[in-house]
Input
Amino acid sequence: MEMTVTIVTYLNIAVAVATVLGGAIAFRYGMNRSANEIQERVIHALQSEIQLLQDRVVALEKDNTRLSDIIALIRSALKQQGLSVTIDGEVISIHDTQGNSTHVTRIHGSNHNVVGQDEPVAGSKEL
Output
C-alpha cells in the first residue's frame, strides 16, 4: 500500500508539473499570436498612411506645377504692361521697366499670407 501511495504521489507531481509546463507553453503561444496580430495591424495601418502621404505628395506636386504656371503667366502679362516681377525666396519685387518705381513685399508664415502693404524702396514712386 505504501508503494501505491508513493506511485500516486509521484504521478500527481508529474501531472502537476506537466500542467504547469503546458500552461506556460500555451500562454507563451497565445502571447506570440497576439503580438503577431497586433504587429500585422500596425504594419497595415502604417502602409495605409504611407500610401495616403504618397498620394498627397503627388497632388501637391501637381498643384505646385499649376501654381508655377499661373505665376509665369501673371509675370508675362505684367511684363507686357511694363512691370517686371522678381521673386527671391520670400521677397517679391515689382519694378517699373522704365526704372521709375520699385515695390518690395515680403511673404511671412507657412501659409504664405502677404503681411502688410507694399513697401516702396527709398527714392521710388508708387505705381
Q: What stands out?
A: The chain is about 60% helix and 20% strand. The radius of gyration is 38 Å.
